[in-house]
Amino acid sequence: MKKQKFKVERSTEGNIFELAFVLLAIVVWVTIIMFYHQAPDIIPTHFGPSGAPNAFGSKTRMFFPCIMITVVAACMMAGAYFPHTINLPGICLANERQAALCTRLMRVLGIIFLLLAGAVALDMLRGHVLFVLIVIAVMVLVCPAFTYFIYKK
Asked: For the segment 5-51, what is each residue's pLDDT rounded down to a tens digit?
């Protein structure tokens, strides 16, 4: 079965998600920059399975993962306009409801990924992985829930 292409128009919901995304991006990056100036020169850059830091480096190294995660989040927000490109194994989007759920999933994940960028910076500066684990737990709960409703026709 060939995937249908659904056109996603601008909507109030989409505008609210995009405004929230931009405001959250500003807050996250202002916070990252504030923490950067307060951080010691050497910070944890990697954490082992126990959550204890096992590698250290310059505080400027925290910017790379945060920039990459922010770019991925922006791509997810843009990808919300192309729900037919979302890779859901074994399913072709068959109706508007599924396309709308895929669009909403991408927007929610975009915002969660922005929170992940902030959590990565915060955890690197604080020397633990608590906030990253919380954000990942939210992601692990959100993705299967959306996927269930997308598969449920």
From this structure: 777 778 898 899 999 999 999 999 998 898 888 888 888 877 778 77
With contact defined as beta carbons under 8 Å apart, do 56 and 44 qualify? yes
H, E, C per residue of the chain? CCCCCCCCCCCHHHHHHHHHHHHHHHHHHHHHHHHHHHCCCEEEEEECCCCCEEEEEEHHHHHHHHHHHHHHHHHHHHHCCCHHHCCCCCCCCCCHHHHHHHHHHHHHHHHHHHHHHHHHHHHHHHCCCHHHHHHHHHHHHHHHHHHHHHHCC
Q: Which residue has the higher pLDDT, 140 or 35?
A: 140
What is the rounded distance in angstroms from the CA atom of residue 115 to the CA atom of residue 66?
A: 10
State the residue for tokens 């920039």.
67
CA gap 75, 106 in Å, rounded: 9
